[in-house]
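Hey,
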Amino acid sequence: MNHKNIPFAKPFIGKEEEAACIRVLRSGWLTTGGETLAFENEFAAFLMSGTLRNTAEFLHSANMEPLEPTDSDVGAPAVHCLAVNSATSGLHLALEAGGVGEGDLVLTPSYTFASTAEVVRYLGAEPVFVDTAPGSFHLDPNALEAVVRRLLAGERAYSARGGFGPRGTPKAVTPVHYGGLSCDMNAIMAIAARYDLKVIEDAAHSFPSAMEAGFAGTIGDVGVFSFYATKPLATGEGGMVATRHKEMVDRMSIMRSHGIDRTIWNRYTDTRASWRYEVIAPGYKYNMPDILSALGRVQLSRCMELLSMRQRIAAQYDEAFSGDERFIIPATGAGDARHLYPLRLHPSTNRDAFIQTMRTLGVGVSVHFIPLHTMPYYRDRYGFEDNDLPESFKVFKREVSLPLWPGMTEEAVASVIACVRQACS
């Protein structure tokens, strides 16, 4: 079969994004300033538009745009947003603002990217990995509660082989909305409430995933979004932190920029303010520059259009592969962002050979993710074996992510489907 090269991911960038960047370049202000402040406000307004709204009503509104707030939204705490230079930075800020520190334990899925756990180590805390639910890509609420109970009983985190891993008091949980598919946040929030855990949603893949309670990233104490080049809203690098807790956003705002009590935008543009500033904490350098925020504002304005494109492509994959015993298609909800298309192959298919064949045919594919408990650092630090978290390891051995990006043509989608079938034959 003769196919064009089809990349795994490609950003959807048009003339509007180009014009926004040129506007910033000509403004004379390149770092964090007015564009970033506007982006934060617009992003917060968008997230608030889905608060306490029926998901189906939201997604099937006539023009696919955010709905205006109604009486049902009155009394809901406002969403505050801070733009950062990466979702990794945002997760670090969120945990620090949540009081996580030396020796604390943070529960997180093993089936995630490196950043979800590494930020825990930045703070001197220990990640405690939780297995995925059977047949799922998401953290298992039942396994989460079982691990929390072991820890509170003074036992080691993991019961296999007589018990191993860290001991201590759990402080937070970081559920990951994998691939734009939403976690069971009702169950996770109930567990967090029972055991007094902060909930930091890793929503790096999940803008704009909608649930009945609101958007992914607005349900827990803090939500963190990624704007990496391949994400549903792409600025190349960058991210956004969202929270309804004013004290947490105040802390993150200070820590985002060296622990200084005033923003650079304020110090250089407010003619009535003093030139003085104070360092009140040993902060970080995590701010987002205006040129990236300008890109983000345009991407935000067309996010529902981009979502519709991804949903259309995913629906074509669903139709092509459902009912075929060689594949398991992802279980999804109506409001899922469909950032990834994680196809699971039958155990009889050699996944590595499948990937090599797809690449030979000119189709880019990937694997999301290699479980963190199998990585040398965590394996050696905590004494893991691959099958200690069996569901995570099982889904990893069978998963392959297919191309799914706005702008894919019907011909390209049909080519991917044909190549998948050929690679499995």
